[in-house]
Every structure is written in structure tokens, then in C-alpha cells.
Here is the input.
Amino acid sequence: MRAPESTEGLDGNAAAGVLSEMFAFEASRAEVVCGGCGAVAPIGRLAAYGLEMGAVLRCRECDTALLCVGVTGRTRSLVMRGAAVLRYRVGDSPSSLSRSRA
Here is the structure.
């Protein structure tokens, strides 16, 4: 079966709009699902290590490295190997996110 023509021949630039929305949020409020144990926690509650050249954010339940952020000059790198899912809610205020988990 052939893919719809609207998706043929596209590269990553076609996703620029949704990607710019995806990465334009208050990161500490986004939730991460651990790929190791399935625990769910906001990024702001993960254990953070090595903040000078970036950070390694680990699950507090099983110690899996969820997110690794590298900082080298003007380059930023994000490795999400240990995170099964990174999610956030569009338009939520910090207080409404807290209430939704209760």
C-alpha cells in the first residue's frame, strides 16, 4: 500500500511548526514517563546531576537516566534514551497541572 501523497518527500522541516510548539513550554512542568520502571514525574522533580556542562536527569524511583542535556558553546543536545514519553499540556497554568494529578 502506498503512503498518502501529502506525506511523501517531506523532511524534518515539515514538522517545524509542531516541534516549535513542543519545545516552547515550561520544561520543569512537563511530565516524563520512565522507560525503566514506568514512574511518572514532572521534570522539576527528577534528580539532577552534573549541571556545569549540562545535566543528567534521573528517575527517583529506579535511578534510570531519563534526560541528558549537553551544553557546548552555542550548541545544546538533548538525549532522551531513558524516557518512554515526555508530555505536557498546552495552556495549563502551574496550579492546574498540580490539581490534575491529585
Summary: The chain has two helices and seven strands.
